[in-house]
Amino acid sequence: MKFVYFNDTGREVKIHPATRVHGTECDMSIIEHLESRVFVLPEGTYPWVKMWDFGPERGLSILVSPQKD
């Protein structure tokens, strides 16, 4: 399954390292404002998404983790 995230936050979004550890494939570089990113999840899963705001110094971070029913 593919999940597309569009960054309309006005800020850079970092991808949490656990995204890849949990089995999601993606470009791990920072997602710039107005940029889309495709996350490819293992077959038979759906995305569980969590975003953190660590403030102006550390910024935003997103985790995309595959889940099964």
Describe this structure in words.
- The chain is mostly beta strands and 69 residues long.
- The protein has one domain.
- Helices cover 12% and strands 42% of the residues.
- The protein has helices spanning 18-21, 55-58, and strands at 2-6, 13-15, 36-40, 46-53, 60-67.
- The strands form two sheets. The protein has a three-stranded mixed sheet with strand order 2-5-4. A two-stranded antiparallel sheet has the order 1-3.
- The longest helix has 4 residues, at 18-21.
- The radius of gyration is 12 Å and the shape is globular.
- The two termini are 14 Å apart.
- The model has no long low-confidence stretch (mean pLDDT 96).
Percent range of helical residues = 10-25%
H/E series: EEHEEHE
Which word captures the global form? globular
Give the total of beta strands: 5
Output the radius of gyration: 12 Å
Treating each run of at least 4 consecutive H or I residues as one helix, how many helices? 2
Structural class: mainly beta
In the residues, how many domains can be counted? 1
Q: Spans with pLDDT under 50 lasting ≥5 residues? A: none
Sheet-strand content, in percent, reads 35-45%
Can you summarize the main beta sheet? 3 strands, mixed
The mean pLDDT is: 96
* Largest beta sheet: strand ordering: 2-5-4
Distance between the amino and carboxyl termini: 14 Å
